[in-house]
Amino acid sequence: xxxxxxxxxxxxxxxxxxxxxxxxxxxxxxxxxxxxxxxxxxxxxxxxxxxxxxxxxxxxxxxxxxxxxxxxxxxxxxxxxxxxxxxxxxxxxxxxxxxxxxxxxxxxxxxxxxxxxxxxxxxxxxxxxxxxxxxxxxxxxxxxxxxxxxxxxxxxxxxxxxxxxxxxxxxxxxxxxxxxxxxxxxxxxxxxxxxxxxxxxxxxxxxxxxxxxxxxxxxxxxxxxxxxxxxxxxxxxxxxxxxxxxxxxxxxxxxxxxxxxxxxxxxxxxxxxxxxxxxxxxxxxxxxxxxxxxxxxxxxxxxxxxxxxxxxxxxxxxxxxxxxxxxxxxxxxxxxxxxxxxxxxxxxxxxxxxxxxxx
Amino acid sequence: xxxxxxxxxxxxxxxxxxxxxxxxxxxxxxxxxxxxxxxxxxxxxxxxxxxxxxxxxxxxxxxxxxxxxxxxxxxxxxxxxxxxxxxxxxxxxxxxxxxxxxxxxxxxxxxxxxxxxxxxxxxxxxxxxxxxxxxxxxxxxxxxxxxxxxxxxxxxxxxxxxxxxxxxxxxxxxxxxxxxxxxxxxxxxxxxxxxxxxxxxxxxxxxxxxxxxxxxxxxxxxxxxxxxxxxxxxxxxxxxxxxxxxxxxxxxxxxxxxxxxxxxxxxxxxxxxxxxxxxxxxxxxxxxxxxxxxxxxxxxxxxxxxxxxxxxxxxxxxxxxxxxxxxxxxxxxxxxxxxxxxxxxxxxxxxxxxxxxxx
Amino acid sequence: xxxxxxxxxxxxxxxxxxxxxxxxxxxxxxxxxxxxxxxxxxxxxxxxxxxxxxxxxxxxxxxxxxxxxxxxxxxxxxxxxxxxxxxxxxxxxxxxxxxxxxxxxxxxxxxxxxxxxxxxxxxxxxxxxxxxxxxxxxxxxxxxxxxxxxxxxxxxxxxxxxxxxxxxxxxxxxxxxxxxxxxxxxxxxxxxxxxxxxxxxxxxxxxxxxxxxxxxxxxxxxxxxxxxxxxxxxxxxxxxxxxxxxxxxxxxxxxxxxxxxxxxxxxxxxxxxxxxxxxxxxxxxxxxxxxxxxxxxxxxxxxxxxxxxxxxxxxxxxxxxxxxxxxxxxxxxxxxxxxxxxxxxxxxxxxxxxxxxxx
Amino acid sequence: xxxxxxxxxxxxxxxxxxxxxxxxxxxxxxxxxxxxxxxxxxxxxxxxxxxxxxxxxxxxxxxxxxxxxxxxxxxxxxxxxxxxxxxxxxxxxxxxxxxxxxxxxxxxxxxxxxxxxxxxxxxxxxxxxxxxxxxxxxxxxxxxxxxxxxxxxxxxxxxxxxxxxxxxxxxxxxxxxxxxxxxxxxxxxxxxxxxxxxxxxxxxxxxxxxxxxxxxxxxxxxxxxxxxxxxxxxxxxxxxxxxxxxxxxxxxxxxxxxxxxxxxxxxxxxxxxxxxxxxxxxxxxxxxxxxxxxxxxxxxxxxxxxxxxxxxxxxxxxxxxxxxxxxxxxxxxxxxxxxxxxxxxxxxxxxxxxxxxxx
Lengths: 359, 359, 359, 359
Description:
The structure is a homotetramer.
Chain A: E1 4-5, E2 10-15, E3 21-27, H1 37-47, E4 64-68, E5 70-71, E6 74-75, E7 80-85, H2 92-95, H3 107-114, H4 131-148, E8 153-161, E9 164-165, H5 173-178, H6 195-207, E10 214-221, H7 235-243, E11 249-254, H8 265-268, E12 272-275, E13 278-281, E14 289-290, E15 293-294, E16 299-305, E17 315-319, E18 324-328, H9 339-358
Antiparallel strand pairs in A: 1-2, 2-3, 3-7, 4-7, 5-6, 8-9, 8-10, 10-16, 11-16, 12-13, 14-15, 17-18
Helix pairs in contact in A: 1-4, 4-9, 7-9
């Protein structure tokens, strides 16, 4: 339980890092939506590690096969299922450390949850690899949204990696510019000149056999006011639930988020005005959402990624087999900083959330 | 849509600030759970504003009437419905400002969502008053949890109000102490000596016809490892969705949250050890959750409350009736700082979430 | 669990026969729907037993109070909650037979399910009285459908009571006539002349301190083709689930139903034709549904009601307190034939189902 | 929408008759359940048409590949996904009749629902082939039930084919015998001597290029009292929803079903007694269910299958391309009577339903 989501865009993901395959089934798509499978594959490629020297050397093809739900290039209205075969798995890497719980990973919690029957190889179903089906589902959602809501834009930027931080964006109109693209789409920054420093922070962590965290900002432009609900189905509730589904996410804020706790209402309320006949807010501290519902301003949110828990440095842990203390140096092929592969996942989660709201 | 929640502990809340009544229906309770209605009422009283000079002068009785689901003092297994009549409503306060959208409130977004048919009086269904049914449901959840999981503890503390900040708690064992109670349960602080400064921050805001935000930390002790799920039903996903349902919440983090983005894995991974035969982590940066599942450590999370949007200061806004710019000074009776009434709501949301997981 | 239903028209019913009140909460209604509360009350009156000599002498006022969700006569978009206070309860009737399981009733099954903690008075939550909230929800659904789908008609007729049987309707065009009304709306018959014989069957059962079953046919006219889904969300699946929620229902068929099992495809396939530019079927053995989806013909279904299990005749049963065999003559006030009060409930369930499909 | 089901045993099925593959994803399985994949495959083989002269000559391998969720022969607790590749598809059979709506099939309704974008080949997602993923899911459910509830028995028998009818079973103890097996498991009959007559009824229909309907009775033995819920989650509601998901089902009754409408309460109430310390009912007209909850007697239900709509006989229909009347003789390879392949599907639906209740 836990791998099924959605009211209207019903998503079910499956798979384990070293099993036969991973994939997703989407139920609830309207019929007749043209799906550009090359564009879908290119979304998967954005997430994949292929050839990126800053990412895991595991070669993940992430080639999607659509099993159902598309006929003559368009959705049929029946469930759309996609399958990615696992390749290049080296399960032997994991067998010897089966009983050594990797700190910061799901190993110990999953062991308690599943009584030791979980597939431990590469984290099994908890692997970051399961974000590939998420990105696939997000890509399908994007295809659909581009038809039913063409003015909608979904974007993300890297705000910080380690201690290298880009600035907050005060003026919400900036997002309407950013949505058109970044200087380096593979490393989306508000201030492109920070790329080298951020990469150095990753390389430094890698060289220390360590890892580093970072912050991603997601944003949505062109969403009309009046989308969302109060309480349990608020945009914040629905979107945060999806964002916290992404492995390594430990915080989600909307708009000015935690900064608002030390301010006053006169500073954080977003005054309204009519500007050239359009209703808009003066500021966007609420991140485009009031009462769980869009107000027409860009939806802006921040997602905190912790450092990848897989590190080569020696760590203190336990051996569950003999319930003894132990030490562990994690071998295998890992990402020193997940952020550079995670921002497309943030966008995918956003697209899935919007698809569910806008259907 | 938006006021129904839960897989097993199914909750439906209803009501508007100035309507006939507010309440909740809970479906899924096991039969035979003893419900102490005085304790339930006392939870509602914690949230109510009665007589608190720092809160709204609206006198809210918040007297709960149980309509069904309890027989001879115990749950019957049938839906438990509770009703709170609205009293002391002065709807006239709102009629004159019906078309003036209150900045920071749901007014404009709700107007777009419901085409102007929403009950605008006092925010209608978006009112903070709807947290009373949440607290009622949370109190029922607590009653149930005290029977099915007696070692469980649910607590919260005020971490900051405006710029007055309490310190983070590094040692997770502290939560096992805090769960036993606070010096002033009505103002739960790690460092009780900060109470006066925090109250002054509220009074200062009140005197300026302004409001102020704050930070609440929630925590759960005594939760066994192995509770939760990966992905969409992770503890983080489920709990954040409930917490973001609370009006004025704009951020949720777990464990070290946003601090982790600038750290390295060697700093944030929580090493494991066997201590007196017990498995525990050395630190608790992950807030007791790995892979969406409890690891046996205290669950710790932070909830950012923005300043109450209702302020007496003049604000720039629009008049929807004539689509003109306008100014607004909000009359009526409001809370200058929601935090001092919100921490019981955070606990209630936590109890509801746990009830759903543990049933 | 079991008292919550719906994807879009989310319904939660609550209450027990002899508790404080019964009611329903509906979440998901669009805003701005005009609700005629007199018409809603009149639907409740159709189900109520007031003054009907063939029904229980218990006087059920069934006066609905709307607690929320309506403002200025229209839906607000927030949950609509309705409450009916229980009156004229004579719980003493039940106390003495608490441990004697009434055959045909839920007593023994509920006792096993709820460990004896269920409210046993008058069947508690299992009481036919809980169909009042269903009828309330159905009446709200009808109000909504009359706005969003004005050409839709929902009707029902009594097909049989005991051995007195009306004829099947072969020509689907007849339903377009019946939808405009029956000679006696309180006793809707295709052949009105059967009313007396049916009433005599009820009286005969009453005089024998017995009860009698009957068959209700429900129908929907004016539903456009293309509503519904394959498999688990087919019209048949969704509607049958609601119909089987009505106490005493033991069978549901669509179209020619069980007659089809002994026929051939050439007899039961409904040929298609263009008639005056309209697509229609020659016959309607499939009851207006193919593949779970409406085909534009009247939706027709039959609902089998068993005889009311409460009878005055002596019955063999057990005493759960001492686990001995026992006999029981049921006292209290009961309906000798539920059918004459149940057809409005069938319509209500149908309206609720359609509301969920058409939102 | 429509292909996802379940509260705890969450099932998502996908695929089209002539697409790349069909399959199912099951979320919610506990970890550590041993899965005998040969037994699972044998359930699929029961449904498959291979070599049966009374079934379609299309050779369906129905070989299942498990993609995830099983590790070392046991469930991992992660979603279990299974894939069946389509083989032996002759799509050309369908292209020429694309615009001719097959009477009794979903063609016209689906066309209205999906705007013509549905995969029309062999009925697409509406094909009876989609019962293979249902049987797969049912087989997994059976594996699980055999571990968590080993005393449970799920069975079915053919009651009638065309006008050849087996007798009703009055004595509920008979089901405890039947559950141990039938003389010919491939043709399960209470009176085995009817097999030849039933087969002749099928052959006669086949020779006439026609088809014939039939009745299947499902039953559950060994289910403890107290399983189920009132109202929307009653056993009847949940099970009927699943049974009506099976293509060609047009009626579902429980216990004595439609016979009860003409009887009296004194005839249909099932008296209770203590027999050798066990509580049992004298009769089982209620089919083992009261108030939606099991009472410890065998659960018995009947499922009406209409004749297969695909027949070679000429039928009147329409050509949607030119909106003209037309005639149609269906070519291709079809089953003259679905019943002989459907009873394993009835059992699968039953197993899925029980898995959801008993988890």
